[in-house]
Amino acid sequence: QVQLVESGGGLVQAGGSLRLSCAASGISFRFNTMGWYRQAPGKQRELVAGITSGGSTNYADSVKGRFTISRDSAKNTVYLQMNSLKPEDTAVYYCKADPVVGILGPAYWGQGTQVTVSS
Fold first, then answer.
1. How many CB atoms lie within 10 A of CB 23?
2. CA dist 85 to 23, 46, 81, 112, Å?
3. Nearest to residue 111, comparing CAs of 41, 39, 12?
4. Half-sphere exposure (CA, 13 Å, Cβ side) for 31?
5. Which of 19, 30, 44, 58 has the fewest CB within 10 Å, making it most exposed?
C-alpha cells in the first residue's frame, strides 16, 4: 500500500522559513519522480518543485532561489526547504509520486499540509 504523508506546515511570518517533509512508503524513488505542488484558495493546483529518479530538479519560476527540493533515499523522504517565504506562498502543499516512463502504475498524492505566511 502506497502512502505519502506530508508534515512540517504551519504559520510563519513573511521572510521566515519552513521545511516540509513527505514520508513515502510502498514506492521507490528509483522508479518515481517526486514533486511538491500547492493549491491556494480559488486557484488551480500548481507544481512547485520536482526531483526525478536521477536526481534532477526543477522549480516554478516563482520559487526559484528560495525553495529547495531534496530527498533522503535511506529514509524514503522528500523535503521542501522554503526560505524567504512570502504571503503569496500561502497554500496547501501536496506531495506527489509519478511513476517514471516505462513503469506501470498510478500517480499518488499525499493529503496535504497547510502553509500560511503572514505579512
1. 15
2. 23, 17, 10, 18
3. 39
4. 11
5. 44
